[in-house]
């Protein structure tokens, strides 16, 4: 395969950016010389012990390593095919201008891994910087930064040093063009393109470089080679060790600076160095941390107001008229309540729910309505302020018009490989891969059916948990009545509370199990849809995963908030689930306390489990990988080998971080009227989450390939939808689940005591039923000396 043919295949998309054909001639004339010099450099004798273990350069100590590929000898029958693919791929990489240096397996720590180190010379960098529309400085910005506010010294302990927050001067930038290099501030060619830009350029080439024609189809891209195991990994290098600064000739170790000022847990109260994060990891990861930081800052106000509402309920729970009447032996102790289940459940006295009544007031009081209104305003302001902050960041990071210039052009190699036809683009007037809609419709139907099936499975699991609660309630009641040693426990652990706690824990376990399958199913059906671009792939996956997670995490909360206790019936004519189990009743204090319990267990459990998993999982894998690799301790553990033994962040690593944050946002907004401490828990979690994410990115993961993003993408639309839904759900929670409206109605319409409008409310909320009218199939077996029992008014 000759040079012109390879260039035609690799540079097909880039030709539209070229103003003349001089680059093709230059690359064609010089590619053979570069390949020869690279082969000579590989053939030279090399003593690995003479090179620093932290070196990020070729053996000559001059050419910087921009990317690393690794592979292991394969003794299987596909070995020959993999060798041919690697040879063709590396040959084509050299013909595009990249320089390669191969480390033999005898120089590796495990004695069986080959490393292909890649360097992008200046002419390749400038060419693809123009192709990718990179903006580079033309002159320094002489506009001074804003001066410190008069009272900025108060926030001094929260600030980071200026050289960390703003590591580089501000510049006026324009889109780079290789034909007018004299216009740009090129003081040093080795540092003009930072390492993040270099690895982004190299990955762009790797993802489009061909490695042969098989079965009549052109095969290309490093992702396909990784999938077929021709290569085992592909990654850019970290700047150096995270626990010590770099030594010459290595450039400044930004990884060390990030670890010292960002990833340490002792700096949890400090601001984040967003510019440095962007420079090292790329704009896409930087945008995530900006969003997470902004969201956390906005949570401070919501947490303060929520904590104030909780304190109000805490201080007033012992003086609440309703709780006092329930706990009073002369009032609540004299009210006999009808059995909560058939046959096995006995009559009970209202004052047995004294503690649950007080706890219910803790979360269901006069401040509930205020906090629901406040959170409706907060979520609106949060989204509007974030849009403003995002627009400012888009300008500061040179991301204006990025999507129009770049993102739509990124076709997925899998899409191109599946396309047998090409279609003329009316805008660019070039042939592009095209797949007719009729070829994709069957997969869309399969995707929709799969999503519907698994969402139905969630509902089925919810029904199973409800059946569990119905079936064990009688068991709890009988067990606690019969065991004498539990008599003192009944004062704070009633059958209702025991059932609610066990049901919530069981539901949380089911949620974790289903989530594991959701991730696999969502990725599979999205892949089968054959999305055209990476943006389409991520948007489709995001929608599916969010729908699954939404139904999985919130379905039980919707049931407790809007359905439980609404279809119970009345003594003598109860309603039954499947004709077997009698529907659940709410506690006399309302179902809000059960909703609060459910949210507390699921939200807290998810956050604790998530943080432990994020920290322990990569740490354990890296330890095991390093333990297996170090077979010969006398050999030097090189920079590329150290990074090779780290865990891969993956193209969807950021996706799961956003998903976790959005699900938490739902807990904070959708049912916050029932749980004012939700913003407090979210705030504490996010403070830890920021440092956990920073720690694992700087210490436990390979360096991700830098990529651009001008916003948080489809997640912003999801947040807007959840904000609208949260206003309605909180309004319905106050109207149908909270007891505040019936209390207000009684106070203004039925109360006869002006000094205490709620006096008599508890008795007024109950209805009387003759025990003699209870059907034999529902009445307790034991005979009692009272003739009536009370039940809630429905």
Automatic annotation (TrEMBL):
Pfam family, one: Anoct_dimer
Residues of the Anoctamin dimerisation domain: 57-273
Residue ranges crossing the lipid bilayer per the database entry: 288-315, 368-386, 443-468, 497-518, 541-562, 662-684
Subcellular location: Cell membrane; Membrane
Keyword Endoplasmic reticulum: no
Name of the featured protein: Anoctamin
Sorted UniProt keywords: Cell membrane, Glycoprotein, Membrane, Transmembrane, Transmembrane helix
The family this protein is said to belong to: Belongs to the anoctamin family.
Membrane topology: Multi-pass membrane protein
Domain Anoctamin transmembrane: 277-749
InterPro entries, alphabetized: Anoct_dimer (IPR032394), Anoctamin (IPR007632), Anoctamin_TM (IPR049452)
Major localisation: membrane
UniProt entry tagged with the keyword Metal-binding: no
């Amino acid at each position: 395969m000759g040079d012109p043919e390879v260039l035609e295949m690799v540079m097909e998309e880039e030709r539209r950016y070229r103003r003349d054909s001089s680059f093709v001639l230059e690359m064609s004339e010089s590619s053979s010389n570069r390949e020869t010099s690279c082969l000579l450099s590989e053939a030279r004798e090399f003593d690995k012990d003479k090179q620093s273990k932290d070196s990020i350069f070729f053996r000559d100590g001059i050419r910087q390593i921009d990317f690393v590929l690794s592979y292991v000898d394969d003794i299987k029958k596909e070995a020959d095919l993999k060798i041919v693919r690697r040879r063709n791929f590396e040959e084509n990489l050299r013909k595009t201008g990249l320089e390669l240096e191969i480390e033999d397996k005898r120089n590796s720590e495990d004695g069986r891994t080959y490393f292909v180190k890649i360097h992008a010379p200046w002419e390749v960098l400038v060419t693809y910087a123009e192709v990718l529309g990179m903006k580079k400085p033309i002159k320094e910005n002489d506009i001074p930064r804003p001066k410190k506010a008069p009272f900025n010294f108060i926030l001094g302990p929260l600030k980071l040093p200026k050289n960390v927050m703003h590591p580089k001067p501000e510049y006026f930038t324009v889109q780079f063009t290789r034909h007018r290099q004299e216009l740009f501030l090129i003081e040093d060619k080795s540092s003009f393109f930072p390492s993040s830009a270099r690895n982004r350029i190299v990955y762009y080439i790797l993802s489009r470089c061909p490695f042969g024609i098989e079965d009549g189809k052109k095969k290309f891209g490093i992702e396909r080679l990784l999938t077929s195991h021709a290569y085992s990994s592909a990654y850019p290098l970290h700047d150096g060790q995270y626990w010590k600064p770099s030594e010459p000739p290595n450039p400044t170790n930004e990884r060390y600076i990030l670890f010292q000022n960002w990833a340490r847990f002792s700096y949890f109260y400090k601001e984040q160095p967003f510019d440095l994060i962007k420079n090292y990891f790329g704009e896409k990861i930087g945008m995530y941390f900006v969003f997470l930081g902004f969201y956390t800052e906005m949570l401070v106000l919501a947490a303060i107001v929520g904590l104030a509402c909780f304190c109000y309920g805490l201080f007033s729970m012992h003086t609440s008229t309703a709780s006092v009447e329930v706990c009073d032996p002369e009032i609540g102790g004299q009210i006999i309540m009808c059995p909560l289940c058939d046959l096995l459940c006995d009559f009970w006295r209202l004052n047995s729910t004294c503690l649950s009544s007080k706890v219910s007031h803790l979360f269901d009081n006069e401040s509930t309505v205020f906090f629901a209104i406040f959170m409706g305003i907060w979520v609106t302001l949060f989204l509007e302020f974030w849009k403003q902050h995002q627009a400012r960041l888009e300008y500061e990071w040179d991301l204006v018009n990025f999507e129009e210039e770049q993102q739509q052009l990124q076709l997925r190699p899998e899409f191109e490989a599946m396309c047998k036809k090409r279609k003329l683009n009316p805008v660019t007037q070039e042939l592009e891969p095209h797949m007719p809609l009729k070829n994709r419709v069957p997969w869309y139907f399969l995707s929709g059916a799969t999503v519907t099936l698994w969402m139905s499975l969630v509902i089925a699991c919810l029904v199973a948990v409800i059946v569990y609660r119905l079936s064990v309630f009688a068991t709890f009641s009988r067990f606690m009545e019969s065991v004498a040693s539990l008599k003192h426990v009944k004062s704070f652990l009633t059958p209702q509370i025991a059932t609610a706690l066990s049901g919530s824990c069981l539901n949380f376990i089911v949620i974790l199990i289903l989530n594991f399958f959701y991730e696999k199913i969502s990725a599979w059906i999205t892949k089968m849809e054959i999305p055209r671009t990476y943006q389409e792939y991520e948007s489709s996956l995001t929608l599916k995963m969010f729908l699954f997670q939404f139904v999985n995490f919130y379905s039980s909360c919707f049931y407790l908030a809007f359905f439980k206790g609404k279809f119970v019936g009345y003594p003598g004519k109860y309603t039954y689930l499947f004709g077997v189990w009698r529907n659940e009743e709410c506690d006399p204090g309302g179902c809000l306390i059960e909703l609060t319990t459910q949210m507390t267990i699921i939200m807290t459990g998810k956050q604790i489990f998530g943080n432990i998993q994020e920290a322990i999982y990569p740490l354990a894998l890296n330890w095991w990988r390093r333990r297996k690799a170090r077979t010969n301790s006398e050999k030097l553990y090189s920079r590329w080998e150290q990074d090779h033994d780290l865990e891969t962040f993956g193209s969807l690593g950021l996706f799961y971080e956003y998903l976790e944050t959005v699900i938490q946002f739902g807990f904070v907004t959708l049912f916050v009227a029932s749980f004012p401490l939700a913003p407090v828990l979210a705030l504490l979690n996010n403070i830890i989450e920021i440092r956990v994410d920073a720690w694992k990115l700087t210490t436990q993961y390979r360096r991700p390939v830098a990529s651009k993003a001008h916003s948080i993408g489809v997640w912003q639309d999801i947040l807007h939808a959840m904000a609208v839904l949260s206003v309605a759900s909180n309004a319905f929670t106050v109207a149908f689940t909270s007891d505040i409206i019936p209390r207000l109605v009684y106070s203004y319409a039925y109360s006869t005591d002006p000094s205490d409008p709620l006096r008599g409310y508890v008795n007024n909320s109950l209805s009387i039923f003759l025990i003699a009218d209870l059907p034999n199939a529902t009445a307790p077996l034991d005979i009692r000396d009272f003739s009536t029992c009370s039940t809630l008014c429905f």
